[in-house]
Design goal:
Distance between the termini: 64 Å
Strand content: 15-25%
Helix content: 40-55%
Oligomer: single chain
CATH topology: Ferric Hydroxamate Uptake Protein, Chain A, domain 1
Largest sheet: 5 strands, mixed
């Protein structure tokens, strides 16, 4: 019986390692796709607007990932680069600068949707991703 335990030890180690890696990856993925009120408060008093919060705490949201969308015709910032589309309380905004109109103290949560989720939830034309902002005003 002790030999069986010794033989199982490497297998069990691999199983535990795989489970912990999967859990850590899932956790970091959800952290990188959401920004909560608590995150903003921990970010410091220099975060006055939702735009500043994203720029400092989740800068990767402002640049869509390269890949198949790099060659697709999506909304452009005028300089040829693609921009993420912003929704504030479920209303589509004209541009990223709309984030600057939302005081950080009014933000309940912000979520980033990658290309696949953005197109699935919002339809064609959202290939560069979406930032969804929920404010205290929506909660009323």
């Amino acid at each position: 019986m002790p030999q069986l335990n010794i033989r199982l030890a490497p297998f069990l180690f691999v199983v535990v390692l795989l489970v912990s890696c999967a859990t850590a990856q899932q956790s970091s993925r959800s952290e990188s796709t959401s920004l909560t009120r608590a995150d903003i408060e921990q970010g410091g008093s220099s975060l006055f607007t939702a735009r500043e919060a994203v720029r400092i705490l989740r800068p990767q949201w402002l640049s869509p990932p390269l890949g198949r969308m790099a060659s697709s015709n999506v909304m452009s910032s005028g300089g040829g680069g693609q921009v993420v589309i912003v929704y504030i309380d479920d209303k589509r905004q004209p541009d990223l600068e709309s984030l600057a109109t939302v005081p950080a103290t009014r933000v309940v949560e912000m979520r980033y949707l990658d290309q696949n989720r953005a197109v699935l939830l919002h339809g064609p034309g959202h290939e560069s991703g979406v930032i969804e902002v929920t404010t205290l005003d929506k909660r009323k």
